[in-house]
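Notes for week 9. Today we move from apo structures to complexes. The key idea is that a small molecule is not decoration. When we ask for a structure prediction with zinc ion present, the ligand SMILES becomes part of the input, just like the chain. The input block below holds both the sequence and the ligand string. Read it once before you look at the output, and try to guess where the molecule might sit.
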Amino acid sequence: MMAASWIRVYQATNNLEAHSLKGMLEHAQIEVALSGENLAAAAGELPADVLQVSLWVPAAQADRARALLKAYESAGEREWCCPTCGELNSGAFEICWQCGETQP
Ligand SMILES: [Zn+2]
């Protein structure tokens, strides 16, 4: 059953980001559809990760989705301290540049 209306809430910079955000939203019980992915597969010649993918959610869940995405974006700007070596890393990096530890 298709919901009445879907709203585009986010334009991911790549496939990987789109899928991790989709997972995050689904974890919060929000239904998510991706667009652009099939296009990437059809294009064939282009690596899928360079094509932009949009995240769509049902209109009724758009506000919650936007709040979660906003939290995700602000988390990306926050610095984090590596639990293994104590190095301070930019929030844009998911692994410690010093020792390679994954961001907790
Ligand atoms: Zn480290």
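The pocket of zinc ion is lined by residues 82, 84-85, 87, 96, 98-99, 101 (CB under 6 Å).
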